[in-house]
Specification:
Blueprint (H helix, E strand, L loop, with lengths): L4 H19 L12 E9 L10 E9 L9 E4 L5 E7 L2 E8 L6 E7 L4 E7 L3 E4 L2 E2 L15 E3 L5 E6 L5 E6 L4 E4 L3 H4 L5 E7 L1 E8 L2 E7 L6 E6 L4 E6 L4 E5 L3 E6 L4 E7 L5 E7 L2 E6 L4 E6 L2 E7 L2 E3 L5 E3 L5 E4 L5 E4 L4 E3 L1
Parallel strand pairs: 1-7, 9-30
Antiparallel strand pairs: 1-4, 2-3, 2-5, 5-6, 8-13, 10-11, 11-12, 12-13, 14-15, 15-16, 16-17, 18-19, 19-20, 20-21, 22-23, 23-24, 24-25, 26-27, 28-29, 29-30
Length: 347
């Protein structure tokens, strides 16, 4: 049976069209998702100086374009506190910033259809306020316990103070003002109990447990232990003469320790009971007798002479004896400071 000419024509056209269709590639190209760069700087919220070495987590919250492969950025600031993240899709982001010694911050940021530059202000970990007294005790701040003190050249002090009443850690500040913790509280919580403080290449403290006493070196940034020296007796306080550590002990002696060989290199007897703090200024050595509130100028060749007996005037105008003198330190101006654990006294 012959096919009508019209139907034959249609059949041939369809066969030709089908052949042409199979020769073509029909791939659907996805639209290009725009992305931009985020640049920024992290600064200290108090003094507006750059905070180097911060870690940032940039995570998308709601994007204007769907992209299941994009999960954000993890960035570390450079030595100038600066950072850069590329390939950010327009939308809303969460930025979490943290660094040892500072409070973690979290904020929401909008990213538009252009590069953006931001500034993140990071607050230090606030320990508390402290006070000091020359003549009277009139200021009543939230006072941290002071278990050691060392002065910096810029007038700030480093103190040893308990973390939430438990593990000791270092804090930086200025007497009469705020003190900020050094290091990550989670890491510092692993530190043993320690007290006293001096700086010789790094911070050194005395500490340990009953019948297991040591001198510990602490990292100046993280506040965690990086080295130690075994001691025979409990250390009461410590200082240095620029070459070795000098410590008072509970057995009426002053010891010198070499931090490189980690050995005791000298021992001197004291002519009084219950030594407490120790501090050096040039060639002078000062030691406190913690039980009777005296401060002595110490000479290894002779028994110390009684030099100071600190007093203050109380709120009623009466002359009163200060508490037990536990720790001593000289500041950069050569002034002697003492603490009874709660207050700082300047002479």
């Amino acid at each position: 049976m012959r096919m009508p000419r019209f139907k034959l024509f249609i059949f041939i056209v369809l066969l030709a069209f089908n052949a042409c269709w199979k020769e073509q590639h029909h791939e659907i190209t996805a639209p290009v998702i725009p992305s931009y760069n985020l640049l920024g700087t992290v600064i200290d919220i108090d003094d507006l100086t750059a905070v180097p070495g911060c870690s940032l987590m940039v995570r998308p919250v709601a994007l204007l374009y769907e992209d299941s492969t994009y999960s954000g950025h993890e960035i570390v600031c450079d030595s100038l506190g600066q950072f850069e993240a590329s390939g950010l899709i327009p939308g809303t982001y969460s930025i979490v910033t943290y660094r040892d010694g500072f409070d973690m911050t979290s904020e929401i940021m909008m990213m538009g259809h252009e590069d953006r530059q931001i500034e993140i202000k990071l607050p230090k970990v606030l320990v508390a306020r402290t006070r000091y007294s020359v003549e009277n005790l009139d200021a009543r701040f939230n006072i941290p316990q002071i278990d050691g003190i060392e002065w910096l050249d810029d007038g700030d002090a480093i103190i040893v103070t308990p973390l939430n009443g438990e593990a000791q850690f270092l804090a930086k500040g200025r007497p009469g003002d705020m003190f900020y913790g050094i290091g990550n509280p989670d890491s510092i919580a692993m530190n043993p109990e320690f007290w006293g403080l001096t700086f010789l290449e790094s911070f050194w403290v005395g500490g340990g447990n009953l019948f297991d006493y040591r001198l510990y070196a602490l990292d100046t940034v993280t506040g965690t232990i990086i080295d130690q020296i075994d001691t025979e007796y409990q250390v009461m306080d410590l200082t240095n003469d620029g070459e070795a550590l000098m410590v008072t002990s509970a057995i009426r002696k002053v010891f010198r320790y070499d931090i490189h060989t980690k050995t005791k290199i000298a021992s001197h007897d004291l002519g009084f009971e219950n030594p407490g703090g120790i501090a050096t200024s040039g060639s002078e050595i000062w030691i406190s007798g913690s039980a009777d509130h005296y401060i002595f100028q110490f000479d290894p060749e002779m028994n110390p002479e009684k030099t100071y007996r600190p007093v203050y005037i109380d709120d009623d105008g009466n002359r009163s004896w200060m508490g037990e003198i536990k720790y001593l330190s000289f500041d950069s101006k050569g002034r002697l400071w003492a603490t009874d654990g709660m207050n700082l006294y300047k002479f």
